[in-house]
């Protein structure tokens, strides 16, 4: 091989490696963002469940306080 052919071959190999790195980086970023969205969605769902449970407990406590006691005769 001549020197110019060797240089061209190494440049092509380098270019292909960099192209692959860009594609893999984009895929990794997409996976990372999808995972982040899934975590946010799950967090919102759990927060809604916790708030509903706390509200139910508050209502039960308020009902219990306002109910007349049978012991106060």
Helix coverage percent: over 70%
> Runs with pLDDT <50, length 5+?
none
Task: Note the overall shape.
Answer: rod-shaped
Q: What is the gyration radius calculated from CA atoms?
A: 32 Å
The proportion of strand residues reads under 5%
Distance between the termini: 109 Å
N to C succession of SSEs? H
Number of helices: 1
Mean pLDDT: 92
If you had to describe this structure to a student in words, what would you say it looks like?
The mean pLDDT is 92. By secondary structure, the protein is mainly alpha-helical. It has one domain. 88% of the residues lie in helices and 0% in strands. The chain is built from one helix and no strands. The longest helix is centred in the middle third of the chain and has 64 residues. The protein is rod-shaped, with a radius of gyration of 32 Å.
Fill in the keyword field for this structure:
mainly alpha, 73 residues, 1 helix, rod-shaped
Helices and strands, with pairings:
Elements: H1 3-66
Summarize this, please?
The protein has 73 residues and is mostly helical.
